[in-house]
Amino acid sequence: MTTVGAAIGAAAIAVGGIASADAQRSAGNKAADAQKASADAGIAQQNKQFEAIQALLKPYVDAGTGPNGSLQAQQTLLGFNGNDAQKQAIDALQNSAAFQAQLQQGTNSILQNASATGGLRGGNTQAALAQFSPQLLAQTINDQYAKLGGLTSLGQNAAAGVGNAGIATGNNITNLLQQQGAAQAGAYLNQGKQESNMYNAIGSAFGAYRGLGGKF
């Protein structure tokens, strides 16, 4: 075979090998880009869902553990926020329509019972009247604290729900980031492999050129 023929044959081998390697590298890069885009979309969706959960649970978190929530109100009733704040909270309960209605109803009941038994002006009646208001106030405070406790528990559960959602979102995003890293690493490995194949193709072309009688 002539030198020209050998050169043409070798060139064909080289071009074919290089084109094949380049096509495989391009396909590998496209696959990596597609996987990265999919992971990016997954991360965006995870963040969107977590923000939605936060928004849904925020009213319950605020009601229970927010600055003006039930936990703060419980602490105020217990005196944790100072004597003045405690007194204001108790006065508010004592002056509430519900307390005043119960006080009036209870007082009337005591007086009616005393009138029916002829002891309207007796010492027992006066003692009962004197004791009723403080007892009713104490009961009202305890009832209010218990009701606030229900809201506090609701807020705590909502806060825990947000925390758990955050942990789950973090784990999911971590997995997606790992997939991104694996895709990028695979792209680099694919690129290195195809470059190696390209150089091997050039080497094979050189060998074919010599084998077909080519000379330098």
UniProtKB/TrEMBL annotation:
Pfam families assigned to the protein according to its UniProt record, in alphabetical order: P22_gp7
Name under which the protein is recorded: DNA transfer protein
Protein source organism: Roseateles aquatilis
Superkingdom, natural source: Bacteria
